[in-house]
């Protein structure tokens, strides 16, 4: 496959290839640890929200705050990446996520709901880093291997993300050692994982893949500029200002390219549906067991079931992402993205038709993860391929911001919808969202080339 543009020849240089291999290793390793940071929040968020606020109508607020944090920081992180590189942007994001974990512990100890929301908002900064890392690994990627490289970094989240929902047991042990409330321990473990992830990125992501590409492109334009500093502008086909970024800049880039718009619609729809259904599943399983939030701690079998269900769901999200990446490279990103949306409809249909069958709910959550994986990996790969190198970082920040904002809206609406229509009604509403997204994506990609 030929490079997408003259600027993509940079990815074929030996120096760039060596840096790319290192970036894959470093980002993948960091993702293993930082993935712990979200699992505990996702698995305990709705339960703690009800426990500390005293009302089930607030069940989705913790996950909403986390996704709002991710939405709020996505564009600033991408702008910082343009100015200072991926290493600084991703490292700062994880440091803020670590502070969020500290506040989550404080909220559990003090039993103060507003602090819980503030902590989860900052944890969302770490979630934004996990999303942007998948784009960072494509900065020096060869065009024919973008899906593979992106999916490897997504896959690396598997270990931490699967372990996160199961930190309730080990967290209780840690809490006992420190004489803290039982639900504080998981956030201590998650915070330690974020700290390790931040340290890996800040110390080992050298050379910075985005800044190296900028220097190599400057050198390709003029041999005399080989020693140009990292803040120099892109040249030729990839000219970009270090001040580029923001909502308006990202939207202008994406709306000008129908394929890029289809890619964003794919990842936004998939993420919103996944978060909406997943965030309410722990509360649904608690209701199915006939337990209140205060009684949950006295029934470890239900706690284990919730953790096991979410772990399988998260495994579906990440474990097979390399397969999704290879399929995107070989079959085409648009086809794999469409397949992912189809699986999401099947997941919502299963949980909606059989809400009282535990096995059906578990299988539905696994399918939910698999559909999200296919749609997100393929949609993200499609977005990179559809744009010039100069346009990618602002568009990526915009995509992640809208993706997280849509998830926040979905999480916020999921509680009232489930309260009024039950788990079946929530599943049906989310299935309808996927269908509408699929229709929009099909209309946008019909007759459009995969590259600009």
UniProtKB/TrEMBL annotation:
Subcellular location(s) of the protein: Cell membrane
InterPro entries in alphabetical order: MFS, MFS_dom, MFS_trans_sf
Pfam families: MFS_1
Keyword hit for Transmembrane helix: yes
Keywords: Membrane, Transmembrane, Transmembrane helix
Major facilitator superfamily (MFS) profile domain span: 23-450
TM helices/strands, residue ranges: 26-49, 61-81, 88-106, 112-131, 152-178, 184-205, 260-283, 303-324, 336-354, 360-386, 398-417, 423-445
Origin: domain of life: Bacteria
Region (Disordered): 222-244
Topology class, membrane: Multi-pass membrane protein
PANTHER family: MAJOR FACILITATOR SUPERFAMILY PROTEIN, MFS PERMEASE
Protein name: MFS transporter
Organism: Citricoccus alkalitolerans
């Amino acid at each position: 496959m030929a490079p997408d543009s003259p600027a993509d020849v940079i990815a074929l240089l030996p120096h760039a290839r060596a840096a790319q291999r290192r970036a894959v290793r470093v980002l993948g390793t960091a993702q293993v640890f930082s993935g712990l940071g979200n699992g505990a929040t996702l698995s305990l968020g709705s339960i703690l929200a009800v426990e500390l606020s005293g009302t089930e109508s607030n069940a989705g607020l913790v996950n909403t705050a986390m996704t709002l944090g991710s939405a709020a920081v996505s564009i600033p992180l991408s702008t910082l990446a343009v100015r200072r590189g991926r290493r600084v942007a991703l490292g700062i994001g994880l440091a803020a996520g670590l502070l969020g974990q500290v506040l989550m512990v404080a909220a559990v100890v003090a039993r103060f709901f507003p602090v819980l929301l503030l902590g989860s908002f900052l944890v969302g900064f770490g979630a934004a880093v996990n999303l942007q890392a998948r784009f960072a690994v494509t900065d020096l990627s060869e065009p024919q291997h973008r899906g593979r490289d992106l999916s490897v970094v997504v896959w690396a989240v598997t270990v931490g993300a699967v372990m996160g929902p199961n930190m309730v047991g080990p967290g209780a042990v840690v809490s006992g050692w420190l004489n803290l409330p039982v639900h504080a321990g998981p956030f201590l473990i998650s915070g330690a994982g974020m700290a390790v992830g931040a340290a890996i990125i800040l110390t080992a992501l050298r050379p910075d893949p985005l800044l190296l590409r900028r220097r190599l492109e400057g050198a390709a334009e003029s041999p005399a500029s080989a020693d140009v500093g990292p803040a120099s502008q892109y040249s030729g086909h990839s000219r970009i200002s270090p001040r580029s970024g923001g909502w308006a800049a990202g939207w202008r880039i994406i709306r000008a390219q129908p394929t890029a718009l289809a890619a964003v619609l794919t990842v936004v729809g998939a993420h919103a549906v996944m978060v909406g259904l997943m965030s309410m599943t722990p509360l649904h399983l608690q209701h199915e067991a006939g337990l209140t939030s205060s009684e949950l701690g006295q029934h470890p079998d239900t706690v284990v079931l919730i953790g096991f269900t979410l772990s399988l769901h998260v495994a579906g999200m990440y474990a097979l992402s390399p397969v999704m990446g290879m399929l995107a490279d070989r079959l085409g990103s648009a086809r794999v993205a469409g397949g992912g949306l189809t699986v999401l409809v099947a997941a919502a249909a299963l949980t909606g038709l059989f809400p009282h069958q535990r096995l059906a709910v578990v299988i539905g959550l696994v399918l939910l993860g698999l559909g999200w994986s296919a749609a997100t990996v393929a949609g993200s790969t499609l977005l990179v391929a559809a744009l010039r190198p100069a346009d990618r970082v602002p568009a990526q920040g915009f995509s992640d911001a809208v993706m997280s904002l849509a998830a926040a809206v979905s999480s916020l609406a999921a509680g009232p919808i489930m309260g009024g229509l039950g788990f079946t009604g929530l599943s049906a509403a989310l299935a309808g969202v996927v269908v509408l997204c699929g229709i929009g994506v099909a209309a946008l990609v019909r007759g459009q080339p995969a590259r600009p």
